[in-house]
Automatic annotation (TrEMBL):
Keywords: Amino-acid transport, ATP-binding, Nucleotide-binding, Transport. GO terms for biological process: L-amino acid transport. This is ABC transporter ATP-binding protein. Belongs to the ABC transporter superfamily. It comes from Amycolatopsis orientalis. InterPro entries: AAA+_ATPase, ABC_transporter-like_ATP-bd, ABC_transporter-like_CS, BCAA_Transport_ATP-bd_LivF, P-loop_NTPase. It comes from the Bacteria.
Length: 239
């Protein structure tokens, strides 16, 4: 049975000047579930996450988090409300240590980085524990991705928005990070919206799949059904 959603997006539209990037998009994310948002380059995936996070102003529609309308709530206030966004690009403060970077994740959220909170991240990503006192700039791409996810988790979110975590990483590393994500969602009841061009990997851990094309939702299925449907897969997902 589908769980009650913690994040609900209804008929969301947004654009950049005359460019309409999102056209009446609806989706929801429930605790303990991963919703994969798929689609080609330029389909509107990043814009969707940026609009949910208040970085792009919607021209229409509604976003609610745990029953609260997010209209007019500013981006800085979202961590305290339980929403964390990991953008594309794995931005870390290169001249700070791994642990200093992690601690930043708790700022502005629901409290400080507690020893417990840090331990939880180090249990999840042991490689970060090994490198906790090293500078972030020596990390590999996969380790950096773990660091930005760990940093987001330190705010103890209810909803995690993840933009293209697999980009540029070796398949083995992607599999490792996605396995960790799956376990985290199962154990902690986190709701994840996972934006990916790597549809095959994303659907291997997702509960639901939503395909965007030119800013519109063109397919919405549970992940297993989407993977099993050769026509849909070939038409929209390229595998
Ligand atoms: P990608 O995987 O390349 O990030 P995407 O599915 O995330 O693609 P978006 O980045 O959301 O797609 O882009 C949706 C549309 O909005 C595209 O037509 C894109 O060219 C346009 N767009 C995105 N960002 C801007 C911007 N800052 N200014 C103007 N147009 C933009």
């Amino acid at each position: 049975a589908r769980r009650w959603p913690v994040l609900t997006v209804e008929n969301l539209s947004a654009g950049y000047g005359p460019v309409r990037a999102l056209d009446s998009v609806s989706l929801s994310a429930a605790p303990g579930e991963i919703t994969a948002v798929l689609g080609a380059n330029g389909a509107g995936k990043t814009t969707l996450l940026r609009t949910i996070s208040g970085l792009v102003r919607p021209s229409g529609g509604r976003i609610s988090l745990a029953g609260r309308d997010l209209t007019g709530v500013s981006t800085e206030d979202l961590p305290a409300l339980g929403l964390a966004h990991v953008p594309e690009g794995r931005g870390v403060l290169a001249e700070l240590t791994v642990e200093e970077n992690l601690r930043l994740g708790a700022l502005g959220a629901r409290g400080r980085a507690t020893a417990d909170g840090l331990r939880r991240i180090y249990d999840l990503f042991p490689v970060l524990a090994d490198r906790r006192n090293g500078l972030a700039h020596v990390l590999s791409g996969g380790e950096r991705q773990m660091l930005v996810i760990g940093r987001a988790l330190l705010s103890r979110p209810k909803v995690l928005l993840l933009d293209e975590p697999s980009l540029g990483l070796a398949p083995r590393i992607v599999a490792q990070i996605f396995d960790l994500l799956r376990a985290l969602v199962r154990d902690d009841g986190l709701a994840v919206v996972l934006v990916e061009q790597n549809a095959r990997s994303a659907l291997s851990i997702a509960d639901h799949g939503v395909v965007l094309n030119l800013g519109e939702v063109v397919v919405r299925r549970d992940a297993a059904t989407l993977v099993a449907d050769d026509d849909l897969r070939h038409a929209y997902l390229g595998f």
